[in-house]
Every structure is written in structure tokens, then in C-alpha cells.
Amino acid sequence: MTDVQRTDNCAHARRRVKVEHAISGAKRLGCVAQAFRNKSNAFNDRVMAIACVIWNWHLTQILNPV
Fold it and tell me: How many domains does the chain have?
């Protein structure tokens, strides 16, 4: 790999780690991590959105404790 490719690869890896950590944080809510049997795609999206909101709230509590 050239130096430019290594630099680009390193930047990509940093972004990827942040995304993977965010996904794993949302999956801490059990209904997101387990097999979901509901047929409604809208409900699936709502459950994932709720899990993301809960995870973001959790992060704000850690970073800005009252």
C-alpha cells in the first residue's frame, strides 16, 4: 500500500469504529439484538429509533453528569 492509501485506510477505520460502537450500544436494548418477529417495517424502524434515542440519552448522562 502506498502512504496515501494507508492514510485513507486509517481514517476509514476510525470512522468505522465509531459507527460500530454506536450500533453495539443500540443493541444493548434486547429487542434490537434478538430475532424480531413483527412483520411491520414501520414498527421495526420505530424500535431501532427508540433504541438509538435511549443509547444517545445514556451517552449524554455519562458525558454530562448532573
Answer: 1
| C-alpha cell at position 32 | 434490537
Residue 27, judged by CB atoms within 10 A of its CB (0-12, 13-18, 19+), counts as middle
Task: List the domain range (segments joined by +) for residue 15.
Answer: 3-63
The two most distant CA atoms of the chain are separated, in Å, by: 48
Question: Measured in whole angstroms, how far is the alpha carbon of residue 18 from the centre of its chain?
Answer: 8
Q: Which long-range contacts (CB under 8 A, 24 or more apart) does 58-65 make?
A: 58/25, 59/25
From first to last of its 66 residues, the chain has per-residue pLDDT tens of 899 999 999 999 999 998 898 888 888 887 777 777 777 878 888 888 898 898 889 888 887 776
> Taking the CA atoms of the chain, what radius of gyration do you get in angstroms?
16
